[in-house]
Amino acid sequence: MAGTAGTVTIALLTLVIGFIIGWLVEWILDNQYRRMRELQAALKQREEGGTAEPRAVPSVTDTGDEEFARTFREFLAEREEEVRALRADLKEQEARYERLEARFEAYMETHPDDLTVIKGIGRIYQWKLRDGGINTYQQLATTTPERIREIIAAPAWRKLDPESWIEQARVLAKRGESVTDGS
Q1: Rounded to the nearest 10 degrees, how much is the dihedral formed by the CA atoms of 82, 84, 89, 91?
Q2: How many CB atoms lie within 10 A of CB 126?
Q3: Exposed, middle or buried by CB within 10 Å (0-12, 13-18, 19+), for 163?
Q4: Is residue 123 domain-shared with residue 81, that is, in the same domain?
């Protein structure tokens, strides 16, 4: 019990410290951005031909402004480096996603959906559909009724309802039903 209370205390303390640090960083950034907007407004006014600067914005030649400009350039350089690192990480994550997607597609080919969940499809029809290249609800949902009749090749006296199968498959594919789901 004491270990749990200690863990909760540490977690709360960490949360509070993180909140305070985050608030301070945001406050500093807000001040820097406000200052940058003021300098941009002054620069824009100068470019438009106005020589007078707003009173709230000191001259760019002031020592404080030079220091601010240097600090801000350093800040921007650090952010640009972070952006480069994040872009590299994003590319890595996209490549990882593509690899996982390819693995999933390979898995789906070897682990087809249980088509017998669909009313009217038994084991025999499931085997025929699989032989015809239909292994998943999504594949069945995008197949035409004519193609299903062609694959099943049932005698004329046998009642088939491929339109119903397609609709049920659409519902199951939309829900993301898997091989083991039976609803």
Answers
A1: 160
A2: 19
A3: exposed
A4: no
The pTM of this model reads 0.40
Angle ∠(53,56,58) on CA atoms, nearest 5 = 60
> How many other C-beta atoms are found inside a 10 Å radius of the C-beta of residue 147?
14
Q: Please name the residue that has the structure tokens 């709230």.
A: 56
Contact 143/149 with Cβ under 8 angstroms? no
Total count of domains within the chain? 2
Dump pLDDT digits (tens) for 81-104.
Answer: 999 999 999 999 999 999 999 988
CA distances from 160 to 91, 131, 144 (A): 49, 18, 13
In order of 116, 145, 149, the CA distances from 163 in angstroms are 16, 6, 10
Which SS3 state, helix, strand or coil, does residue 32 take? helix
10 Å Cβ neighbour count for 128?
A: 16
Mean pLDDT of 112-130: 93
CA 100 to chain centre: 14
The answer to whether residue 26 sits within a structural domain is no
